[in-house]
């Protein structure tokens, strides 16, 4: 997803560059990285392919950022994974668009196992101690990334997304900064529990 978004002409949306490089900024404490209550969503609609990339502090989605130790913590992580596995509900994708999820990629240090750093395995080997410092930093302030690819039979019906489901499922999320690109152009918008709709 990052490669697609980085390839798009987001020149009129300078904040997108900050979002796209969140992981790098995050490790170095730069602006726009890790703020509790705030998440980022990148949206790209190209013909019948809809791509969504949600980046959020773990605190917004599970209520903590340490590795799940107690049964309660583990249940919260599993619940979040189940909720994140249903982007059609979370992002209010219109049924008329006939979208089906073709790929889901959930990534966070909290999820543990092989998923923990599968996107950046080559970086860990290449950069050694630098990768380790980022890894340690992530455990101090853990994030959750959820990337989705959907194929839509009738993309013309995809006139809007509604994040009411996301705000309902994850009430600790107070604001989502959205960057979107479609055939109609590019836009940035700030969504909240009282303003959940993104016109595409």
From TrEMBL:
Entry annotated with the keyword Signal: yes
Ranges annotated as biased composition (Basic and acidic residues): 114-142
Keyword annotations from UniProtKB, A to Z: Signal
Residues annotated as signal peptide: 1-20
Protein name as it appears in the record: DUF2796 domain-containing protein
Organism listed in the record: Pseudomonas asuensis
Record flagged with keyword Signal: yes
Region listing for Disordered, in residue ranges: 110-142
Pfam families in alphabetical order: ZrgA (PF10986)
